Amino acid sequence: MKIGVSSYSFSQYIKSGKLTQLTAVAKAKELGFDAIEFTELMPPEGVSQAEYAKQIKAEANKCSIEISAYLVGANLAQKDNSAEIERLKTSLDVANALGAKLFRHDVMYGYDVFRSFDQALPTLVAAIREVTEYAQTLGIQTMTENHGYICQDSDRVERLVNAVNHPNFGTLVDMGNFLCTDEDSARAVSKVANLAFLVHAKDFVKISFADRKNDEGYFETRGCNCLKGTTVGQGIVPVAQCLAILKRAGFDGFVDVEFEGTEDCATALSEGLAFLRTII
Fold first, then answer.
1. Which of 103, 122, 113, 108 lies closest to 153, judged by CA?
2. Which H or E element spans position 204?
3. How many whole angstroms separate alpha carbon 148 and alpha carbon 73?
4. Are the C-beta atoms of residues 270 and 10 closer than 8 Å to each other?
5. Exposure of 43 by Cβ count < 10 A (0-12 exposed, 13-18 middle, 19+ buried)?
6. Whole-prediction pTM value?
7. Would you kindly state where each structural domain of the chain is located, as residue ranges?
8. Which letter does DSSP use for residue 43 in this model?
9. 9-14-18-22 Cα dihedral, nearest 10 degrees
10. pLDDT interval class at 3 (50, 70, 90)
11. What is the mean pLDDT of residues 253-266?
């Protein structure tokens, strides 16, 4: 396994102007990561996403660091999702310019069109197949993530991948995100480990519904418990167990740190990387 970091993990520094997505490449290398993934490129004014992707790729080559993946949002649960499909194909062209061989897109955010996940499933499957077939022509594998409350439980992720039934489509297994639907991380990872194309190492601290009066800085799970991001290895996610499960399933790809806490991001990422090195 190789340990990468998400550009999203540098959000503190990017929002403050201390870093950009481009300069985050060298910072990731400085911290000791093997790779960096990117979420929704935000180029400076006058620069297209495709051109920015080429700049980032050149910087990664200069720094001798790999680009593990490109991640974008998407809502395919629409009666007419043709525009969203075309947008994802354009995003795949950006991923290709980056040199990323893995591409994650979301599938569904809410019940505004369909009343249930099962009702939306046929629509999702048809769209995902079209996207992944285009990606395959570029040599890129596509995946969904346990993300967005609806398609986040391990059983729904598994059902979606099985329904798409395409060798080019799998899942990004985020070991922390299962907690957002109040699911046990180790049990959930064990159900989808064989479908993993990419892994996110993420950690949270949690308070229960009964303790919500102390929920400052937290966000709600689907079941109204509360989570707050923290340094990998310092929360309640059984990171070592999850990685052992993935290794047993044959996973040997990128494990990218995704940090969402309030601690200084560079310090948290450095500590999280050191923790992962002791495991891997």
1. 108
2. strand 203-207
3. 10
4. no
5. middle
6. 0.96
7. 2-279
8. P
9. 90
10. very high
11. 97
